[in-house]
Amino acid sequence: MKYKKILFAAILGSMLYSCTSNKNADDLFLEKSIKSDAKFLQADTIGFFEDLIYARDFHVYQDSILIVRNRKYEDVYFLEFYNLPQGKLLKKMFRLGNGPNEMLSAKIEINGNLLTAVDYVKDQVALVNIDSVLQDSLYQINPNRYYTHSPTVVQYKENQYLVLNPHCFKDRELGIDNKASRFIVTSKKNIYVEKNEYRYYTWNVVANGLIITNYQKNIIAFAPIHRPEIEIYDDDLTLLKHIHGPDKLPPNYRIVNDFDNNEILFKKDYIPYTYLNYCTNEDFFYLTYMGDYLHPSKGENMEDYPLWVFKFDWNGNFIGSYFLGRYVSSISLSADGKSFYATAISEEKNPFLIKFAIK
Q1: Which helix (H) or strand (E) holds 134?
Q2: H-helix segments, 136-230
Q3: What is the C-alpha to C-alpha distance for residues 56 and 307, in angstroms, rounded to an integer?
Q4: CA distances from 202 to 198, 238, 244, 261, 324 (A)
Q5: Taking a C-beta distance cutoff of 8 angstroms, is the pair 107, 151 a contact?
Q6: If residue 357 lies in a helix (H) or strand (E), which one and from where to where?
Q7: How many C-beta neighbours within 10 Å does residue 240 have?
Q8: 147: buried, middle or exposed (CB in 10 Å: 19+, 13-18, 0-12)?
Q9: How far, in Å, CA of 224 to CA of 219, rounded?
Q10: Backbone dihedral angles phi then psi of residue 115, each to the nearest 5 degrees
Q11: Which helix (H) or strand (E) holds 251?
């Protein structure tokens, strides 16, 4: 299973910057060999879509629908849906703007037939049923405010939202513990109001991550983008399993003091990146993984780093690993689970769609 028992030092290291704990949760460590033993996947180019001049990245739904996320540009919609074989435009949603049904930013994730579009500038989220988009040309969904200043939001039970808490930070070396929960639960009717005052502003080091839900199996997985950890919860937010590794990437923080607050940032040349994107089906979830520090002062970009894909079942059991040999900014799973679609970046910094056959 490529797991090993965690040594005391490994547990201690994770506690330096983890704000979640449960005495009954299982602690597991991914062996580093899951990277060296990963199956290499060869990429085939599907299309450059040169006419889509505002495209930022692509997702593929059920092998036949191309979902385009566009860059910010005046009078351009953030989301476009195309019939992939025919290239026919089916739907546009969320134009750039500050009015109704408009957004100022769009971070998207797709889980099953649900597309979650988060406008973290305006603190609003839209839950888009992709099947409804395809079946009803008049389908619209209004973004709702969630008021927690976090870019990581998903649907939760009973018309609620589950939000990654941007104050959840603990580091023993710095002697800082915000004593904040991992998640915030909020809704349109019962808006969460932050009553605590925090001495340290930690948004930049903890607010981004992946919340991956499977409510049929009562499981929520959380993978941060800056720490090599995965947390498995039940849908009542009880931590069941804490998975560490396969790398050790201790954070290097700096504290910037100003008149308003003390902001915690990564040291400029030591920004750790781990889990970046995901895709799912009924049986498994897949995570793209970088596992290295980014050094911006050396002119490095994310595209300079190759990625792996780690496969887990919904209980958090490691199933297998794949090496992509390149950076991709998005990933989708084919309907039969035998291929990945992904967005690659050309030397001219333009996105194009590729496909990996899973061996």
Answers
A1: helix 130-135
A2: 203-206
A3: 19
A4: 9, 23, 22, 10, 32
A5: yes
A6: strand 351-357
A7: 16
A8: middle
A9: 17
A10: -105, 125
A11: none
Structure tokens at 29: 């460590």
Residue 224 · residue 209 · CB < 8 Å = yes
SS3 sequence, 13-39? HHHCCCCCCCCCCEEEEECCHHHHCCE
Looking at residue 12, its amino acid is L
Q: Which two tokens stand for residue 328?
A: 């991709």
Contacts of 146 (CB under 8 A, 6+ apart): 123, 124, 125, 153, 161, 163, 186, 191, 192
Cα separation, 343 vs 353, whole angstroms: 5
Q: Model-level pTM?
A: 0.94
Q: Which of 231, 229, 224 is nearest to 209 (CA)?
A: 224
Which residues make beta-bridge pairs with 20? none
Which residue in this structure is represented by tokens 């495209």? Answer: 55
Q: Is 30 exposed, middle or buried (0-12, 13-18, 19+ CB in 10 A)?
A: buried
Contact 239, 225 (CB under 8 A): no
Q: Nearest to residue 72, comparing CAs of 119, 114, 123, 140?
A: 119
- Phi then psi for residue 297, to 5 deg, are -65, -20
Say if CB 242 and CB 233 are below 8 A apart.
no
Helix (H, G, I), strand (E, B) or coil at 215: coil
In the block, residue with structure tokens 């092998």:
63
Q: Residue 237 — left, alpha, or beta (φ > 0 → left; ψ -120 to 50 → alpha)? A: left
Give the pLDDT of the chain (359 residues) as one tens digit per residue.
565 543 333 333 343 445 676 778 899 999 999 999 999 999 999 999 999 999 999 999 999 999 999 999 999 999 999 999 999 999 999 999 999 899 999 999 999 999 999 999 999 999 999 999 999 999 999 999 998 889 999 999 988 999 999 999 999 999 999 999 999 999 988 889 888 889 899 999 999 999 999 999 999 999 999 999 999 999 999 999 999 999 999 999 999 987 667 899 999 888 999 999 999 999 999 999 999 999 988 889 999 999 999 999 999 999 999 999 999 999 999 999 999 999 999 999 999 999 999 98
Partners of 161 in beta bridges = 155, 186
Give the position of tokens 């597991």.
28
Distance CA 291, CA 352 (A): 24
